[in-house]
Structure formats: structure tokens, C-alpha cells
Amino acid sequence: SLVVLFGATAGAYGAKLGSDERELILLVWQVVDLQNKKVGTLHKSLVKADNLDLSDQCREVSGLTPEGLGKAEPLDRVLQQFSQLVSSDLKVLGRSSYTLCSDGQLLIRQVLHPETSKKNFLLSDCFYSFYDLRKEFHTCYPSSAAVKDQTIKTMADDLGLGTDEAEEDFGVWQVKTMVAIIFSMLSEGCNHIFTEPETVKHKYETGPCSKSETVDSETVIRARGLPWQSSDQDIARFFKGLNIAKGGVALCLNSQGRRNGEALVRFVNSEQRDLALERHKHHMGSRYIEVYKATGEEFLKIAGGTSNEVAQFLSKENQVIIRMRGLPFTATQEDVLGFLGPECPVTGGKEGLLFVKYPDGRPTGDAFVLFSCEEYAQNALKKHKEILGKRYIELFRSTAAEVQQVLNRYMSTPLIPTLPTPIIPVIPPPYTIATGSIRDCVRLRGLPYTAGIDDILEFMGDATGDIKPHGVHMVLNQQGRPSGDAFIQMKSADKAFMVAQKCHKKMMKDRYVEVFQCSGEEMNFVLMGGTLNRSGLSPPPCKLPCLSPPAYAAFQTAAVIPAEAAALYQPQALLPSTRTPQASAAAPPTVTYYPAQAAQLYMNYTAYYPSPPVSPTTVGYIAAPPGAVAAAATATHTPILPQPGALVRMQGLPYNTGMKEILSFFQGYQYAPDDYNGLIQLSDQARSVLQAPKEWVCL
């Protein structure tokens, strides 16, 4: 038997059903006995939605009103009545089992499953298997229109069924016509057999992914804006009704190994992926989630792994994975098992533990643990921030993809740490950023996130010839991704004005881009972390009072750093030198000169990193002018390092650590203030700060 099912929501209708998250307001169904070609009673039930504000399209098509829906039953009660009435009709027809049959996939996959998931009640098993009448019709009549172009009316017209939609109530006509189409398919000329129903997965299956796998790019999406604490099961719940591939949820991590609010999700086929894209800006809790297309290569980069140890660890299917962070470096498997206790037994004992290590075998303080059921995992999560040894341990839900990412990240860490960055990183001369109030720059706002330099140059058209060398600056967000903004330095204010007039609201790909004329000062404010809007300029963090250590006041004038100090940070030791032979010859190698403006600009704030290839990609030093060389030649300088080993590098500082905490940490290790007198040209205020009773001075 089939149960022909039709439904409608308070919002979009037809091909966009369910795309706007509106609730179900109507269910109509009828039982069909395929063997005896009989039908049961046709039932129509209104559903009381939480939000009775109907869209104009819904009012026009359905004829329903908020007043009428206000007297209806809620969805859970209607579904109970559905099960009872279907069972009663089957008994009358002498049947015992049935499968749903709907007009397309949207009602089941995009409406019923997501809504019941959000309202926290379970659908009966009958809603996890159904026939798509459009696909069955196309199979029976191969010469008919493509499945995506079919509707109930087009299928009826193809069969010459003379039904008048205006004569019946909304929903009743659709079900009666669907039943007539089914009987036509069962006729002697066709003898269609319903054999392969569509299925909806009951739960998401975890599993490993190998980098050698082939992943179809037409099956992958990127979800953005996820709560940081969301797990793979939460994401699977967001896409409830759609079939995610085994191990197909990969949570993305940032450079610190923490989740960045994005995930790559792989579906079983392109049809499921297309339905997932329709959930763009649907909500997870109070947050809306953006859904975009992604590629198989991106998915493998995040979820793929090559480690046999990881593959063996993840080979146990349907396990709940918990990540432990902050373990003592001396912690053993027995210590971890003892910490978790008997109330949350680990799957396989020691085999269910995976310690994350550096390539040389040193522990990182991270570990992953497998649990066989949700109850054990919940018991483990209750131990979040409990003490093991002398450290508190953080516990989080994790995924197979996160295991791969964390292992890949640590295993690719170089054994020899990179050299510390220079004390005062400055931009080489060819890449100086404009300042001043002359409005010779333009700001591009609303760029597609996929836009690159080539796209911007093509967008500018003939005006590209008026761009200063290396004058295109992409603005990145805190995660290092394009923010949709860019600044362009033009050769004159007139050129900037002409570009703003010509290109404002011009299309780039599928978006229009706003173009505004601005000054170099305004551009610098944004590039350094400030904001520029209708209310004016909001200064970047480096310009706010009291955010920079007092010692930075020393850099009010040009500073000359002696050769002994400069030798510690030779550019060749870090990145390829960009200094030209002429620049090298212009000044003796014994003095490195730092302009006052550059020192002030880059000492206080380094959160913004311009994107290559048009912005600085190397760190260099600016040659000193002759006057500075002469002054340095007559001055006596004290080396920055009085003796070998006096400079130390600190790693693992808490993010909220300030200068006072660092000075307190080094209590008892005193540097004489006189050691700094010759380091830089000091103002009286800065000298008083350095000569204050401190043990250390933080550079």
C-alpha cells in the first residue's frame, strides 16, 4: 500500500517549499491499495503553527487564514492522528504495511524532518522511507520532462487527466490527482512497480577519511557561523532529513587548533547537496548558518589523513569521540583512565586512547578518547576542568575529522622552532602605505569572498593603469579570510574620484560592489583594525589609550639601533632580503635605521596581515639616512645582549597576559636600567619608565 501525502507551510510553495524555515500548516493524505486498486478515506488536517503569520503566497494559494489555523491541533498531535487514521484505513482495506508517496522530496526532507528535529519530537519510522512520485513517473515515462521540472499539474497534463484545480479545496485536488497518476502508472500499458524507495538516514555515522579517497566536489558544502561548541552531531541535526556521507562532517580549526565556526559537510550525492544549499541562513539555535558550495579538495584537506595509527583508532564505528586538552606532559594511559573513572568506561581500554605527539615523540597535552554510547560521553564531559595532577583538564566533543586535523597539524610542526620576529618589523620602501588627508584612495565594499586580485583589476577596467605600484590591499578578518573589503591607492585624487564615479555599484560576479573615495589616513585606520562607517572613524586597538605598554612611548622620534642588536635579527635569517643593491650601498651595514612613523605604526599593533601578492611578503629594514649614520658613528652604544643567552622567548602565554604578569613572572632576575640607555633615543618620559624599579623590561 501507498499513503499519498501532500503538505504546505506558512511560507514558500512549490520548488521553494521549506527553504524559508516556515512551519507546516496543512497535511492531506489518502491510502492506496496497489494490488486491488482501491483507496481509503481522504483526510485533511490543519496544523497550528507557533507563528501564524502567513505569507502572501500562502494566503493566495491555500486560502487559509490565521483564524482558522488558530483552532487546529499542533504538529505532534496531528502526526499521532495521522498514524491512527492510516492504521484504521489499512485495516478496512485488508492491508498491514505501507510506504509514503509524496510529490518530490521537499515535504519529507525539507519540512517534516527539520521541523520535528527543532521541536524535539521523533518521527515514526514510516517517514524515513518514501517514494518520490516525480522520479517514479519519469521512470515509467522516460520521455517526460526532467524530474526537477515536473509538477503535479504537468504530470496530469502529460497523461491527459481532465482535472480542474479550482473545483477542489487546496490539498484535496493535489492528493486526488496524485492518486489518479498512480493508477495510470499501474495500468496494463505500463505495469509500473514501486520497488526502490528513497531513504532518510536515522543517524549520522562517524568514520575516518583517507587522503587517497576521491571526493566529488558536487557533494560538498561549507557551513559558516556555527557555534564554537557545536559537534558533528549538532551539524547533522541541522541538516536533518538529508543524507550525509559516512564521516562526512569536518569541523575546521584555526591556527591555534581551536574551532573557527566553520565546517565542511559531504553528502551522499549532488541532489542532497543541492537541498542543503537551500538551508542557507537557516538557524541553529539563535544563530543563522551560511551554507555555500565547497570542493572535494577542500574537504580532503580538512578531513583526510594518512596516519595508520589514526585509521586504527577511528576504525571502531559509531563511537562518541571526546577531546581532552591540557594534560600534563607526564600523563600516562593509566592516569587518563583513572581520571575518567568507572562511570565512563573507555571503548577497548587503552586502545580507545590516542595521545597527540610532536614528530619527535614529545606529548602536546592533547588526547582523544572513544566511548561506546552517549551516556558514557556525557559522564566524561561532566569532568570538564577537573584536576589531573596539578592541571585542570578541558573536555570537548570531537569528530573524526578533528582527530585528523589535530594529528596532521602537530605532525607537520618543524622540530627546529622558527626564529623570533624582529623587534620592530617595518615595510620595505617599495611597499609604503599612504598616509595623509589627500583623498587619493578608493574603498571597495561588498566584494565576493572568492574575489582575488585579478578579479579586482578586471573590475577596475581601464583605471588599472592609474593604480600605484603595489597599491591593492585586501582587508582580512580575524580569521585571516577576505572580509569583502579592499583599498586601492590611486595616482591622484582626481583618478580616485573618477574610479568611484565609474565603478560604484558595478557588478563583480553575482554581487554589486560599492566604491567610495577615501584618504590614506582612513585606509590606514581600517587596515590597522579600525572601522570606517557613516558615523565616522573608530580608531584601531593600537590607537586606543592605555592599550600599549608605557615603554612604547620611547618611539616618538627616529630610533637608531646599534649593529650588535641589528645583527641578531638579520633579514637573511628570517626571509629573503628585498633590499636592492643601491639601497645596501647607500648606508654602511653597521647601522639599521627605523623611521619614526614606521616604528610608531607597527610597534603597537600587529593583528592585520595584508594578503599577497600585492602587499608586503617579506620583512626588511630601511637604510639609514646619512645624518643618522653620522649620529650613530659618534655615539657609544651598549649592546642589546650584554652576554650570550640574555634574550629569552616565551611561548604558551595566556591570551590575557599583560606586561605586569610577565614582570612578576621574572621576579628576582634584574637588569640594570643603564643597559638600555644606549639602545634607543629615549624621551625623558620613556627613560623614567625604564628606570622605574622593575626586574625586566618587555620588548
Automatic annotation (TrEMBL):
Q: Where does it primarily localize?
A: nucleus
RRM domain location is 320-400
Record's superkingdom?
Eukaryota
PROSITE patterns named in the record: RRM
Report a single Gene Ontology molecular function: RNA binding
Cellular component annotations (GO), alphabetically ordered? nucleus
Compartments where found: Nucleus
InterPro entries on file: ESRP, Nucleotide-bd_a/b_plait_sf, RBD_domain_sf, RNaseH-like_sf, RNaseH_sf, RRM_dom
Which family, according to UniProt? Belongs to the ESRP family.
* Annotated protein name in UniProt: Epithelial splicing regulatory protein 2
> Whose protein is this, by species?
Urocynchramus pylzowi
